[in-house]
Specification:
The chain has 389 residues and is an alpha/beta fold. The chain has helices at 17-23, 81-88, 102-113, 136-145, 155-163, 189-195, 216-224, 242-251, 269-273, 303-310, 323-327, 339-351, 353-371, 373-388; strands at 2-6, 30-36, 38-39, 49-50, 54-56, 59-64, 66-67, 76-77, 92-95, 119-124, 149-152, 169-172, 202-209, 231-238, 258-261, 278-281, 315-318, 332-334. The protein folds into two domains: 2-177 and 372-388, 3-Layer(aba) Sandwich (Rossmann fold), CATH 3.40.50; 189-371, Rossmann fold (3-Layer(aba) Sandwich), CATH 3.40.50. Strand 11, helix 5 (155-163) and strand 12 (169-172) form a beta-alpha-beta unit.
Length: 389
């Protein structure tokens, strides 16, 4: 099976691991990734990245000239895409820029004009209802009409596409998996000592942006309610909310229990997760279903959850967006914004070591079964094969 993937996501080699794994699933599987030749991830003012071609067996990344170097919806590719399509003749074309992107329309059109007869798919993270104006509404209608299958990063995204009138096949899975070689159980006694963490400490962990929608203030309130318990809170990340968290914890008399760590390279994140007794993702939805607008935010997945699962660290998450679907029965879920409910989850894990052990095992098993790059690659291949039948 010849599979072609197109997205700006794969300018970063680390993000390609799922498709490298896909190419290794059989001698007849070939995967070619088309990535923009130049891209500015942080917008026009950010440093421009130039994608480098590389190959590993039947997997390869090919940079193609592109128009728009910082807008996902406006991204489309140059004429050098045409000879690649003519030579490779993919049977599957998956464009990971959403339902209303120009790049997807471009691949659909070239697929028809060149007579490739490939099955066309797109990936989307979008999980909020929306309305479109002309001419974008026509673009989306064209794309959906010529779509053979969709991969969405969350269940809400699948539901919204149904509301938009798409009646074809959909599979729900994240865009990126977890690297179990990197994220694995690893005792970190030296790092713990450096941060002042003792073996008996109950360490509540958070990894992410310090912004209101990530629910940090609710986490602080929950920990305040457990002030009589011997806990520490390890916060990994940065953001505008840091000062407010400091002030809130100081007012509650627990500031000295918070440990702040910033600017950690991705390869070092597992070391810090392995210091945690539990990882909490208390995300809070800012979108409200009163108007059909795209204003607001809801948790699209929560990748740090599967990273913690792979490290055998029990997870607690709010019920914002995809979090309950990611956790399943392998962790604890509480109503978003409810500090009392979060405190009850934390207290349960503090008081019941056997529950911690059970959830750590369940989480690990779930992560290895559903969320490694190889597991996702197998799910994708099965989906592609069903579309080819």
């Amino acid at each position: 099976m010849r599979i072609l993937i197109a997205s700006h996501t794969y300018i970063v080699a680390l993000n390609c691991e799922k498709f490298r794994a896909l190419a290794e699933l059989g001698p007849d599987v070939e995967v070619t990734i088309v990535a923009p030749k130049r891209w500015s991830p942080g917008g026009v003012q950010s440093k421009q990245i130039e994608t480098q071609p590389w190959q590993a067996g039947s997997f390869r990344v090919i940079p193609i000239s592109n128009f728009s170097q910082n807008n996902q919806g406006l991204l489309c590719f140059g004429a050098d895409l045409i000879p690649l399509l003519q030579t490779f003749r993919p049977q599957i074309i998956q464009v990971e820029q959403g339902a209303k992107s120009l790049a997807y329309a471009q691949f659909i059109t070239l697929n028809r004009l060149l007579g490739l007869r490939a099955k066309t798919l797109f990936f989307t993270w979008w999980n909020l209802p929306y309305q479109l104006k002309f001419p974008v509404s026509l673009l989306e209608a064209y794309n959906l009409r010529h779509t053979d299958g969709v991969v969405t990063g969350n269940q809400d995204g699948a539901d919204i596409l149904r509301q938009r009138g798409y009646g074809g096949e959909i599979r729900v899975m994240p865009q990126l998996g977890v690297d179990e070689r990197l994220f694995r159980p690893q005792p970190q006694p030296d790092l713990a000592a450096k941060l002042g963490i003792q073996p008996e400490d109950f360490v509540v962990g958070f990894v992410g942006r310090f912004v209101e929608e990530k629910g940090l203030l609710t986490l602080v309130k929950a920990l305040e309610k457990l002030a009589s318990r011997p806990w520490k809170c390890l916060l990994l990340g940065r953001g505008a909310l840091k000062q407010q968290v400091i002030e809130q914890s100081e007012a509650a008399g627990v500031r000295d229990r918070f440990i702040w760590v910033e600017s950690v390279p991705h390869d070092d994140v597992p070391r810090y997760i392995n210091l945690m007794t539990t990882l909490v993702l208390p995300s809070e939805t800012t979108y409200r279903f009163k108007t059909l607008t795209s204003v607001g935010w809801k948790e699209q997945f929560g990748h740090v959850l599967i990273e913690a699962m792979a490290c055998q660290v029990p997870v607690i998450g709010s019920d914002s967006g995809e979090i309950p679907h990611v956790i399943g029965d392998a962790g604890l879920v509480f109503p978003e914004g409810q500090a009392d409910a979060l405190a009850a989850c934390l207290q349960k894990l503090m008081d019941q070591p056997d529950v911690r052990t059970d959830l750590a095992k369940r989480g690990y098993d779930r992560g290895m079964t559903h969320y490694t790059n190889r597991a996702l690659a197998k799910q994708l291949l099965t989906f592609y094969q069903s579309l080819m039948d």
